[in-house]
Amino acid sequence: MAQNHDFIEPRVIARLKALPLHARLPMLGGVTGMHRSPHRGSSLEFAEYRKYVPGDDTRRLDWRAYARSDRYYIKEFEADTNLRLCLIVDTSGSMNFNNGGQSKLDFAKRLAGTLAYLAAQQGDAIGLYCAGKKFHTEIAPKRNAAHLRVILDALGDSTGAGETGLANALHEAAERIRQRALVVVISDLFVDPKSLADAFQHLRFRKHDAVVFHLLEQSEIDFEFDRPMRFTDLEGGAPLLADPSIVAGDYRKAVRQYLDDLKVIMRDAAVDYQRLSLDQHYGDVLAKFLLERAPKKK
Amino acid sequence: MQFLNPIWLLALPLVFLPIVIHLLNQRRHRTIEWGAMQFLLSARRMSRGMARLKQWLIMAMRMLVIAGLIFAISRPLSSGWMGSIGGGKPETVIVLLDRSASMQHQQLVTGETKLSTGIKKMAATLETVVGKKPLVLIESTLNVASTVDTPAGLLDLPNTTITESQADISAMMQTALDYISDNQAGRTDIWICSDAAKNDWNEQSSRWQSLNSGFSKLEGVRFHVLNFPQPPEENMSVVVDAVNRVTRKDKTELVIDLTVNRSGEDHSPVTVPLTFTINGLRSVMDFSIDGQTNSLLGHRIPIDAEQSVGWGKVELPTDPNRSDNSWYFAFADPVVRKTVIVSEKKTTTRAINLAAATSTQSGVDFESVVLTPDSVSEINWQETSMLVWQAPLPTGTVAKQIERFVESGRTAIFLPPELTDENQFAGIQWTDWQRGSNSREQQGGGTSVSFWNNDEDLLARTRSGSALPVNDLLVYRHCKIKNSQPDLTPVLAKLGESDPLLIRRRSGSGAMYFLTTWPVATHSSLDREGVTLFAMMHRAIALSAESQGAARQFDAGTLPAREVETFSRLDVAPGDEEDVIANLAQALPFRAGVYGDDEQLIALNRPLAEDQNGAVPVQELESLFKGLDFALIDGEVGSAQSLTSEVWRFFVALMAIALLVEAILSMPSKPEAQVELQPATAGASTTQEKGQVAA
């Protein structure tokens, strides 16, 4: 592993290795993998019977069924395929926020890097899109060992700067990722929730399985300051002098409204929405995330 | 508003401390890099309303707390009139106390007089304002500045008690002015306690102008006039007009003429008991009064035939004004009413001679002697009741003799000489004879009297209340006067716009009158309209006669103390309260009563001017103090309400309320439910189902 890939921790990888990354929607992969495909295939998993139509491969006729019912049925099995994991990491200036510890971007790198590693290990294709105001890193999904290194290098080199253009970036990603993919968005989502609603609906329309890791810091929610503060906009906007004793109440109200709106948007767009705090360990976050996505035993 | 510790008011700018702290706090801000600016901008937009108002309210409350604290420790005093004063404690406090008879107006329920109410209020106020510090007292009887140890001391001093004398407020003001100038008193508060009686204030006197200009040159002098102008309601007063001892056959009687006056709106007939005390023996008679005034003439009271000298008093029941409920008199064998006329020409004083020699009382002899100026030495001053001087004004020894004559209580009337000269007497000099433009010879008419004082003195109304026919008089020639002391010589009658017809100058217990024309046909109609001249002469003789003989009458306060220093008071029993006060040497000439020694009796009564209920109007009072730092305080007789009180408690309460409001406003609003960042998932439960559908 490269020296600058310090956001990849072998201990965490070792812990998560046993937990496969599953998509919740059927994927269209190029090779056999461990994910459901919308097509019928040759796995051992029986899927369904269907009536024979001319042109069907007669080798797949269920003769026993024909003997019982005197009708031709084709026996179909599930197809297992690999998935395309598209990591969209928000690299706007606001991702540099930290509260004395790691920044949101550091946290995002750990999440994305570990997910990429796990996906690569199970033979899935990995792509990376780093979005500021627009994509400044765009690596299409591929599945080979060398590609993981490219992804990790790009992650390691990414820095937070500029304004957020996440909504546009998501629209663009929805268009560029041609096949169904597991789209993982890691961002603080400091954009207008309404614009996000359209973007996620777009992803959903393109049949992508969208996952959002929403990174927040508790101090951003609580807004507990005891004296006037000069707030410098991490995204380059004008600084703001505010007296917390005056604005704190309304600030919290605005945050609450925003989070409520976001929750509704995510639910409507069937997005797997994970709200995270920087205080959490990303290993725990990923373990929980992977466990939740693991197919339930029937 | 006045403050006892105004130095603390210098700390008032500290009121702005919360704003300064707020601004400093704003400047002491920390800088933080922030990502969630969208919420901050949204909050800033929302917080422009109530939150900002709340913050300013909190700020205002904090300022109010500091202001309340500063005001409280500055020890503010209440009452609106003190608001005009401002500043702090004076270095000197001078109290001018009007102890005139009219200040005895009392509230019947409490027995508090105007004087006692005023003293209590002033003592309480000064105790609050200056604390237990000495103050200077100038009271109306002695009119000298004396030191009182503490304001509370005013309550116990013998020279702050009631008297039946008259006050001269302008003279007291002059004393105060002199005191301030002589002692460099610094910032001075002058408190004047008075009922603003016109006769005490004499607001027309030109002395007020010089006082005003004198005080306006001083810095830091403030006047507080504690004024009790309310006249007594339903008050009665008694005046004994004449007392004569009459012997008829074997019967000796006192013949008393008296007048009872009533003030107030009730003029219905009423009967009051009149108590006569003659040499200690009391008798009571019911006396009916209908209307405002009623006279009792010729009331006879038998006395011992051998008793040639004695005293008595007439009393009315208690009413709101104690001072005018009694009248003292002393009687003795009547003296001959001798008038000495010194005249250049007998013809000029013929009418006076006739009037003075005419007897008006039975049993009393009236004589009149006419002398030339050269034979003045023949005058027996002891036996003379009245002097009429129609000659060049006296100088030298004669002038001194006349001065002593008047000071002893007798009357002198001066008429102009034929040829004026530069002689001066009592500040008066005859200047030029004036012939009226419409003199009798030319147009058949003379100058009429434009003003005369019909309230008191020689031209007062008659006992029945009708005025003397002074307006019928015509003056064809009169002599102008050069008056060097106009303040001391009130004009009793005026010709035209400015020239006086009759002026008066008091001296000791007597008076000098200056008549500016002759009672001859070529000069005036005084001889033709004889009533006025006759009344004038006999009133002047009566005034003189009061101070002659073994029994004499004086107004309280007009007799020099030295004349009565060996006297004792006869009308009160030894040892009672009145006697104790009376025996205080200072109080003797100022309290009404009968005083005497082995040889003579003196009856002292209130000056009749004290019975006039006129108060100087507020506008005129204010004009007297125009340009000076002046506050007029209306007092109420018997009111126990303090003029001022400390109101720091109000400010402490205000501070407490402000603190409470500030605390309530500063309390954090209802705690909001904490937003938990983890775990929050949305769509997770539905994702799979939707995914299956999509598949």
Provide a descriptive summary of the structure in words.
By secondary structure, chain A is of the alpha/beta class. Chain A has two domains: 226 residues, Rossmann fold (3-Layer(aba) Sandwich), CATH 3.40.50.410; 47 residues, no CATH class. Chain A has nine helices and ten strands. In chain A, the strands form three sheets. In chain A, strands 5-4-3-6-7-10 form a six-stranded mixed sheet, sandwiched between helices. In chain A, helix 1 runs parallel beside helix 9 and helix 3 runs antiparallel to helix 4. The longest helix of chain A has 25 residues. The two termini of chain A are 39 Å apart. The mean pLDDT of chain A is 83. Chain B is an alpha/beta fold and 695 residues long. Chain B folds into four domains: 74 residues, no CATH class; 169 residues, 3-Layer(aba) Sandwich (Rossmann fold); 129 residues, Sandwich (Immunoglobulin-like); 210 residues, Rossmann fold. Chain B is built from 15 helices and 32 strands. Chain B has a nine-stranded mixed sheet with strand order 17-16-18-19-26-25-24-21-22, with helices on both faces. Chain B has a six-stranded mixed sheet with strand order 6-5-4-7-8-31, sandwiched between helices. Chain B has a four-stranded antiparallel sheet with strand order 12-11-14-15, with no helix packed on it. In chain B, helix 3 runs antiparallel to helix 14 and helix 5 packs parallel to helix 7. The longest helix of chain B has 24 residues. The chains are: A alpha/beta (298), B alpha/beta (695). At the A-B interface, strand 7, helix 7, strand 8, strand 9 and helix 8 of A face strand 2, helix 2, helix 3, strand 32 and helix 15 of B. Strand 8 of chain A pairs parallel with strand 2 of chain B, so a sheet runs across the interface.
